[in-house]
Task: inverse folding
């Protein structure tokens, strides 16, 4: 073999050996770091403090005296006056008043010659519960939520719903309740009567309650004469007041100069303010339906 050919073969063999023995080149790995997680931000939680319940004098007419707590002397009522547990309200021969249960806006109308004690008022505004003790006279209740009980010397009346009246006559020892609308009960240790719309019941002395009975004309007249909030409901039942009930001497709430104070339905923590230079409207006198 000639020398040039040997050289070519040797060169080719060297190339082949070099290729076979070359180490593999590793593919470079690129490390990508994740972006840093954002710092956690705690959103502040707004805590709404419930408005405590209260029993306040929202309206009164003529002679009404209040003893705010269990002790102390009676003094003339004033608007916005708060009754504490054990507080007493009494009306004179010509007196009437309205007790507002806040913040739910339930209303208790107090008739003439009536006395009651605030026995209990729950703190829960979601499921409000109230208990009154009626010593004598008449109460008309418009309930906006929860329950309300009225205890007398010989019975316990309660309402879940809307409209209930309770009266107690100390001379006959008779408790009478009417359920103008809603669900009402009258009970004592001798029995229990359940009522619904347009029904009434009574208990005399130490006897079981009697009823249910249809509401009498006299009881309807009592609702009309004493409870402005019931006029629309009475009208829907077809009730017509007697002609004599339209005279101011009989219907004291229709006396000229008597103004209806709006009943609050919700008490806000900060009452709304009127814009500057806003004229405050004057409440008109109460329109009185004619028979």
Result:
């Amino acid at each position: 073999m000639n020398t040039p050919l040997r050289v070519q073969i040797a060169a080719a063999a060297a190339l082949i050996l070099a290729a076979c023995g070359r180490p593999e080149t590793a593919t470079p790995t690129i490390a990508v770091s994740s972006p840093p997680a954002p710092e956690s931000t705690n959103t502040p939680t707004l805590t709404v403090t419930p408005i405590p319940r209260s029993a306040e004098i929202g309206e009164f007419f003529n002679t009404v005296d209040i003893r705010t707590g269990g002790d102390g002397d009676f003094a003339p009522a004033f608007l916005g006056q708060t009754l504490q547990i054990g507080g007493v309200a009494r009306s004179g021969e010509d007196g009437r008043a309205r007790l507002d249960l806040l913040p739910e806006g339930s209303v208790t109308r107090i008739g003439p010659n009536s006395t009651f004690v605030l026995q209990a008022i729950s703190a829960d505004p979601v499921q409000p519960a109230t208990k009154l003790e009626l010593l004598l006279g008449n109460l008309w209740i418009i309930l906006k939520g929860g329950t309300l009980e009225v205890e007398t010397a010989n019975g316990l009346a309660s309402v879940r719903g809307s409209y209930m009246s309770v009266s107690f006559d100390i001379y006959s020892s008779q408790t009478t309740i009417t359920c103008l609308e809603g669900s009402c009960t009258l009970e004592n240790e001798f029995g229990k009567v359940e009522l619904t719309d347009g029904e009434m019941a009574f208990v005399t002395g130490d006897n079981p309650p009697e009823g249910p009975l249809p509401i009498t004309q006299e009881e309807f007249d009592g609702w009309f004469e004493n409870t402005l909030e019931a006029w629309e409901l009475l009208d829907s039942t077809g009730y017509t007041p007697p002609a004599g009930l339209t005279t101011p001497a009989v219907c004291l709430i229709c006396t000229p100069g008597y103004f209806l104070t709006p009943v609050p339905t919700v008490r806000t923590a900060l009452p709304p303010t009127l814009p500057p230079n806003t004229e405050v409207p004057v409440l008109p006198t109460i329109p009185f339906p004619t028979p």
User: Anything to note?
Assistant: The radius of gyration is 40 Å. DSSP finds three helices and 15 strands in the chain. The CA atoms of residues 30 and 172 lie 101 Å apart. The domain at 54-254 is CATH 2.60.120.1440 (Jelly Rolls).
